[in-house]
């Protein structure tokens, strides 16, 4: 299946390093994911200098073919996040991934937010082999679907298109969190990981877990942090 990996983005001086690390990490693993492209879908950022490694493209003028396998699709205006439940910029960027998948004839969309890292081969292999449905993962700490990592296969594109139309028609205002809106068909709980970049989450894992523990993904990793830091606590296969 032809697939893409993408994240949503809003890039400034405070978080620039986070996106550089995400790009470097996943661009080196595209072959492992059997993925053709790495995409960032950008909510009106002003800091877009990644050198020659990343092609910057306007979201309203998509080329027929892509010259680079790492592309940032830029919206000129910034919608942002007016409130906790009103995150228009994210919704626009997230749903636009469907338009890119249709434009470039993609069979599977892999969504991995810019502060999340898949760190085990077994999880990568699982994501590669998913061929149907809309899969999200799971946060044990929050007892909630983890929508920062999603796999959306072509048979779910029709469902995704309905979400896209709702987003456009409402000017990207859902007033509900994504976990209550997205029509995912599977919550995969068979992998170990969480938002370990959050202090309270990390503390709970260290309190309850017999270490060292082999984990599959980590999230909420600050741009100034590094996944290698967690080798002090867990078995990582980066």
Description:
- This protein has 238 residues and is an alpha/beta fold.
- The chain has one domain: Spore Coat Polysaccharide Biosynthesis Protein SpsA, Chain A, CATH 3.90.550.10.
- Helix content is 25%, strand content 25%.
- The protein has 5 helices and 13 strands.
- The protein has helices at residues 16-27, 88-103, 121-129, 157-169, 199-208, and strands at 3-9, 35-43, 55-58, 70-75, 108-112, 117-118, 134-139, 144-153, 186-187, 193-194, 213-214, 217-218, 234-235.
- The strands form 3 sheets. An 8-stranded mixed sheet has the order 3-4-2-1-5-8-7-9, sandwiched between helices. Strands 6-12-10 form a 3-stranded mixed sheet.
- Strand 1 (3-9), helix 1 and strand 2 (35-43) form a beta-alpha-beta unit.
- Helix 2 (88-103) crosses helix 4.
- It is globular.
- It starts with a strand and ends with a strand.
- 34% of the residues are buried.
Key structural traits:
alpha/beta; about 240 residues; three-stranded mixed beta sheet; eight-stranded mixed beta sheet; about 25% helix; single chain; Spore Coat Polysaccharide Biosynthesis Protein SpsA, Chain A
